[in-house]
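Anyone else keep sequences and structure tokens together like this?

Example one:
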Amino acid sequence: MKRFKSIKSISPVLFPYTDRYSVRADAAQDLLISHKAKIIGKDNVARKPALGDDTLVVGKKPDGFHIFTAKVSHWVDDERKDIWYKKGGNRWKINYEITKATEPVFLTKEDIQTITGASDKDMSRLFVDQFGTDDPNSKIAHLGDFRKKLVDYLRS
């Protein structure tokens, strides 16, 4: 399996965590583990980042989102990739070291809509990894613009 995409992504690459697959059924726990260990992981190998890509690391909760942004660094294929699994969470298929991580924050849906201008329909797809935004001519390219706005906000 290729470790990275060969071309830099147009918009931030998502690393979403959900309660269903997370440590203690709490997506915020997976996000905090990622932040502390400076490692991110996910299963969607079709949405791999390129080295140096911006990421949005998101812990989805019913009342909002725990979120931070970081840059993708090195591929991780050692014992660190099991950090979530050892605590009762998932063992992710692809794992990367991260650099330049912002502090995690909690944002409500309304906060994100104010920051990005996303509609309710957009919000239902904004943090879904299957909605990739690397084709600037696609009908969902605007989701990439919203993700960029979030990165800019988190870094400000």
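And example two:
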Amino acid sequence: MPGSIGADLAVGTPLLMGVYYAPHSDARAGSKQISVNADPSPAVTSTYPDRGLSNTQHEIQISIRYLNPSGAYTVTMITKGSKTETLEQVGSPALDTDPRCGTADKFCTTIGLTVKTPAENPDGVLSGGPASIRICQGATCATTVFTYVGQDAYIVDGLNVTSAVSIFETPVEIYVRNLPPIDLASKVAVKLGDAFCTVTSFVRPVAPSTIWTLRTKFPPNYIPAVVTGSVYRKADGAAAGAPRCRA
């Protein structure tokens, strides 16, 4: 409305915005009340991959909002064991600016950074756990997490179902990385919730993918509130008395 343009407004101040035909004056304006918010804090919107083996170097793609796109960035990793590493940036930042803004600034631009981890987990190749990654511009930082997985652990990327009907047996696919080239059907099993399941079939990865697909069936009459998929070696055994999936 007249008199508001260029004014200094306190955070939280309600502002009435109007649109009107000049000859008719603002008395006939269509209006909408908006609020003045504080500047948002920098935030990471995506991290990929968000986990990886401890004995491998990883290139991690991180997207950040609300940092100055024309500034310089430092990226630091702090491991579960409290070891600190400065991460190398790969290439130049990628800027994705909303075309409605016209210019790149921290409110309209998503910054894409690719960083490289050390050759192995600073805590050791058998160690795992979350490592905090801080992307900073001076004293202003955004934080994300990369999870290390010990070199002999399996990595479950996801399930193709997240719910099931309790009276039916439900086919499930589990997507797994870091499996050795073995006879999976005889040596590897999966666990869904508290139920231990036999691998009924599997699909080997096709290069460049390293993801195996394991197929099993979730048992009827046993549906926990939250289904978590995990993979284990049959040689490690299963809990005595645990529910079993049918092959």
